Amino acid sequence: MSGDGKGDGSEPDGADPGAADLTHTDESGEAQMVDVGDKPDTARRAVARGTIRLRSETVDAVRDNAVDKGDVLATARIGAIQAVKHTWETIPMCHQIPITNVDTDFALGDDGIELTVAVETTGKTGCEMEALEGATTGLNVVWDMVKSAEKDADGDYPETGIESVEVVEKTKRPLE
């Protein structure tokens, strides 16, 4: 196997033929970071979105900035941005990339909050993992901020859940 992730069929004896398509393992199956050094720099953008289901009373408290712990959305925004900036430290084999912009947008519904995180970079690899980390961490921060309001009498969270986290946009364009 060439280790270039191109799946050229030159696997060593006994190697898994499907392993030729794996870009995060070397010839012996050990984890490795993909070499992006020869790729050209491009302008890249990724957007991820997710939702946290909450009791309607909790959403109202967030909307009215009446949660005991403080401003839920401001805190979640900071958490999302911090997560974007530190993705390379938490996702194995993820490159540290120069983040040029992060936008967060919260949409409060009747029984939940949707968070959209847009990340931009100029570099050799994409930023969708950063957008996903921002969305999931931002939603986790919302949960942390409102958990006392969401707990039932047994200390459980029967109406609370994070769902539908997905990449909704991924673009790249040559630098001008």
Plain-language structure description:
This protein has about 180 residues and is of the alpha+beta class. It has two domains: about 1-30, no CATH class; about 40-175, 2-Layer Sandwich (Alpha-Beta Plaits), CATH 3.30.70. It contains four helices and four strands; from the N terminus they run E-H-H-H-E-E-H-E. It has helices at about 55-65, 70-85, 85-90, 130-150, and strands at about 40-55, 100-110, 110-125, 160-175. The protein has a four-stranded antiparallel β-sheet, with helices on one face. Helix 2 packs antiparallel against helix 4 (about 130-150). It is elongated and about 55 Å long. The model is unreliable at about 1-15 (pLDDT under 50).
Quickly list its features.
176 residues; alpha+beta; Alpha-Beta Plaits; 2 domains; four-stranded antiparallel β-sheet; 4 helices; 4 strands; 28% helix; elongated; MoaC_sf; lyase
Brief sketch in words of this structure:
Helix content is about 30%, strand content about 25%. The chain contains four helices and four strands, in the order βαααββαβ.
- The fraction of residues assigned to DSSP E strands is 25-35%
Multimerization status: single chain
What's the CATH class label of the largest domain?
Alpha Beta
Mean pLDDT: 87
CATH names the topology of the largest domain as Alpha-Beta Plaits
Question: What percent of residues adopt helix (DSSP H or I)?
Answer: 25-40%
Distance linking N and C termini = 37 Å
Protein structure class: alpha+beta
Strand order of the largest sheet: 2-3-1-4
Number of domains: 2
Unreliable runs, pLDDT <50, ≥5 residues? 1-17
Using only C-alpha atoms, the radius of gyration works out to 20 Å
Give the name of the CATH architecture of the largest domain.
2-Layer Sandwich
- The CATH superfamily of the largest domain is known as Molybdopterin cofactor biosynthesis C (MoaC) domain
| Pattern of helices and strands | EHHHEEHE
- How is the biggest beta sheet arranged? 4 strands, antiparallel
What count of helical segments does DSSP give? 4
Keywords: Lyase, Molybdenum cofactor biosynthesis
EC number: 4.6.1.17
GO molecular function, one term: cyclic pyranopterin monophosphate synthase activity
Protein name: Probable cyclic pyranopterin monophosphate synthase
